[in-house]
Predict the structure.
Amino acid sequence: MDEEYDVVVLGTGLTECILSGLLSVEGKKVLHMDRNDYYGGDSASLNLTQLYRKFRPNQTPPTELGRDRDYAVDLVPKFIIASGELTKILVHTDVTRYLEFKQIAGSFVYRDGKISKVPSTEMEAVRSPLMGLFEKRRAKKFFEFLQSWRDEDPSTHQGINLDRDSMKTVYEKFGLEPGTQDFIGHAMALYLDDDYITKPARPTYDRIILYTSSMARYGKSPYIYPLYGLGELPQSFARLSAIYGGTYMLDKPIEAIVTDDDGKFVGVTSAGETVKAKQVIGDPSYFGAGQEGGKVRVLEEGKVVRAICFLNHPIPGTEDSDSCQIIIPQNQVNRRNDIYIAMVSHTHNVCAKDIYVAIVSTIVETSTPELEIAPGLSLLGPIYDKFVDITPLYTPTSSGEADNIFITRSYDATSHFETVVEDVQDVWKRVTGKDLVLKKREVEVQG
């Protein structure tokens, strides 16, 4: 391996694959390596054999689950927000030509012991059991205020300054009840906890507008999802990279990250051979994740617990939806963080017919993580099989600009990819020294 590359990328998670695709398009010479024999890293979609091998190495999958090849089970449950940043990247890079998308049928919220649909139209809002009659009027005024807001027109501001006033102030101005605040902050703005309430209202305003514009785009829910699972996303960016000259090597154990006397990155050793490059980008598992004094540390929120569940029925109370998201706001179950349920089915080509895959996840707060997702598991009805995973959340300890080692972040507990794109934009700026700029086009979605 005498060739020298501009960038070596380690790990084929979505973040790494987007970066290698974008860097290849920019004309960089990219070598992409992964110790696994499949794409996706922590964000892979596994077939039945791979899933059982990962969680229960001594057990073969039960025959009643059907054929191995019918399955593509996501390890990290996330949906794509229709008008969000990942959609812009997919469209900008034209990666959409490798993918087919289907809509997620419904978005639900847990409140007062039952599941209710997050209203997607004004008519649904009027009928929704989430609010009483007078509260509906107040909420209508609140949403009208958000939709008509124009930065340059003070007459639309109603005395509010989004950059100075807290979200608490905005809620109080419209007299919204705590339950409505919960539903807006968690089911629409998609915050994991209530810290946002005391902060300036602008980010919450942006998030609600993103949600409502995504909802308006295809109706039903603001989310879309790739057929054959989320593992299709990293593979599609890998294809993009390959078209522009990127080189891929799977099943390559990484033996050493090589640095010079000043601690600067010079190459990567695999199978006794060292490949030289100017920069390295990789996920935390390649840089001493879990070791003291490594280049990554565990985030304050610590760990995420996820339970992958096979069901042979839709989730009760979701109008027999073939796919959905259910958010359990933390206040409803006396927690600090929300619990998420993401469900997909054979209509997304990720499991056999009459099987449903539901993933329940949250940020770990106690020494008994599995008990923490119990409120979510109890909504699923009878569970055929369940795989529980507890994953630490890592972040790099430095920007990488001093040693040319650029480390991505672990996939967080959010139910969508917006934070992944923030990480892509952040790493891109550190690696190239400039902002990532995207063009706009449209995405096609199946009904």
Notes: The mean pLDDT is 91. The radius of gyration is 22 Å. The chain is about 25% helix and 25% strand.
